[in-house]
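User: I'm writing a tutorial on reading structure tokens. Could you give me a worked example: one chain, its sequence, then its tokens, then a sentence or two explaining what the tokens reveal?
Assistant: Sure. Here is the example chain.
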Amino acid sequence: MPKFKFAKLVRDKIVDNQIASGAKPSFRQLSPKEHKHELVNKIIEEAREIIQAKPAEVAAEIADVRQALDDLQESYGLTEEAIKRAQKLKNDRNGAFKKGYFIEYVEISEEDKWAEYYRANSDRYPEIK
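And here are its predicted structure tokens:
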């Protein structure tokens, strides 16, 4: 019998469906901390699938991302109102993503308050020499 590695969070009915079909999944229930971590991984996985999806599949892929986001929100005990407030604050301060601006790099003075932040987050903002 062939065996295939998953090593990822799956939707709740997948294990039951596999068992019902005669498959033998090796699985466990994640701790709350692990679950939150794997929900983030699931969001990343599903978001990547949107790029590769055919036009007819995009809604289903976005639904997967949204489900993982909804479950993550619930696991943190956050209300929809709290999320909307945070979204409004960010949008009021920094805008949304509608214009499609993409920064290749930013050059700033050594005294700029952001220099320290960018250097402290060099995995996201590597300094170009």
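What the tokens reveal: The mean pLDDT is 97. The chain is about 55% helix and 0% strand.
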